[in-house]
Amino acid sequence: MDKVLLKQIVPKIGQLLKLFREKTGRNQSDIAMVAGISVSMLSQIERGVVSPSIDTLVMVCQALGLEPADLFKMLSTDRPVLIHHQGERLTMVNSGIKYEQLMTSSHGPSQFELFLLEVMPGCKTMLSNEGHQGAEIGYVLKGSALMSVDDVEYLVKEGDSISFNSQLPHQLHNQGKEIFKAVWSISPPHVDYLRIDEDDTVKD
């Protein structure tokens, strides 16, 4: 399997397992005990830190009451029509920033990822000093923020749209008093997009 594709899939496996576990109201200790693995191992799998073996993945799925085939079906982007239902989307929340994946396509001529980005007042994404391959497009739904691209700051507010070369250093900072919401697209998908500058984050 392509290394880039594998890096994209491993975190999504963990996120889907965590999402399914939380939806069924079960904790990590219960699932780990039934699956015959440590809580630490399950935690690392859910966070995408480690790539589980097939045997381990099957045992975790069985502990969750989830068919492995259904898990891989959710990961597949080869279907002609993809629908991500509300409540089933991959979501990450960290230090005042929420990332909700709306859609992703990793195969074919059009490779992209579409997500809803929410940034709480005073919070910002970590500065991407070296940037990364691709381009980004954003449309602001609510609030305002400073978008720094290659050391130049741009104010984007509700109703504005922005696009830029992702290879340039960039950072988004909500300096306002209300939550910042935007629909964001990146092409090609970038697995490490959500990076948080925790030292400078305003806590609630």
Topology of this structure?
Layout: H1 3-23, H2 28-35, H3 39-46, H4 54-64, H5 68-75, E1 91-94, E2 97-105, E3 112-119, E4 135-142, E5 144-149, E6 152-157, E7 161-165, E8 170-173, E9 180-187
Antiparallel strand pairs: 1-2, 2-3, 3-9, 4-7, 4-9, 5-6, 5-8
Helix pairs in contact: 1-5, 2-3, 2-4
Provide the succession of SSEs: HHHHHEEEEEEEEE
Mean pLDDT rating? 80
Shape: elongated
Give, in spatial order, the strands making up the sheet with the most strands: 1-2-3-9-4-7
Q: What is the terminal-to-terminal distance?
A: 42 Å
Counting H and I runs of at least 4 residues, what is the number of helices? Answer: 5
CATH topology of the largest domain: Jelly Rolls
| Count of all domains | 2
- Structural class call reads alpha+beta
Radius of gyration: 18 Å
Main sheet summary: 6 strands, antiparallel
Q: What is the fourth-level CATH superfamily of the largest domain?
A: Jelly Rolls
The CATH class name of the largest domain reads Mainly Beta
**Total strands:** 9
Unreliable sequence segments: 1-6, 192-204
What share of the residues does DSSP label as strand, in percent?
A: 25-35%
Q: Which second-level CATH architecture of the largest domain applies?
A: Sandwich
Helical content, roughly?
25-40%
Write a compact overview of the structure shown.
The protein has 204 residues and is α+β, with helices and mostly antiparallel strands. It contains 5 helices and 9 strands.
Please explain how this structure is put together.
With 204 residues, this protein is of the alpha+beta class. The protein has two domains: 3-75, 434 Repressor (Amino-terminal Domain) (Orthogonal Bundle); 91-200, Jelly Rolls. The protein has helices at 3-23, 28-35, 39-46, 54-64, 68-75; strands at 91-94, 97-105, 112-119, 135-142, 144-149, 152-157, 161-165, 170-173, 180-187. A six-stranded antiparallel sheet has the order 1-2-3-9-4-7, with no helix packed on it. It has a three-stranded antiparallel sheet with strand order 6-5-8, with no helix packed on it. Helix 1 (3-23) crosses helix 5 and helix 2 crosses helix 4. The longest helix has 21 residues, at 3-23. The protein is elongated. It starts with a helix and ends in a 17-residue tail after the last strand. The relative contact order is 0.15.
